[in-house]
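Structure request: Thaumatin-like protein, Brassica campestris.
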Amino acid sequence: MASLHILFFMFITGGVAVSATVFTLKNSCPYTVWPATFAGKGSTLGEGGFQLDPGASVQLTLTNEPGWSGRFWGRTGCNFDSSGHGNCATGDCGNSLKCTVTGATPSTLAEFTIQGDSGNDFYDLSLVDGYNVKMGIKPEGGSGECKYVHGLRR
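Returned structure:
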């Protein structure tokens, strides 16, 4: 079964200057997925949602936002008009391409907190809102022993 992968890069540039986190979302599914993003705290990434064709990837950069928290999920079976109004069979978020609310069930979630407690980053895959696509998170860069999280499937 193919999956939606989120590569999670951390890099720090300059002395005291800027720290950034880059999320690379790659669609490894044989069908189009419409990733959605929602920030519980901080900036909305990727304008809240977009189309990602099979094999395509996109990078979303979060710059210097300690304590940022948010989630990503893949929506399937979507149909949007040119103004971004429409709906999705799974993970719909208020009939809009660009989400301003969390998604409807079922939707597999990738959840993150960046520079949270003690400056640490936290991430997980969650089925609290159900399951709709296989997903993985692969951290790269930074420090520590961060593991590749993957394999959630029906």
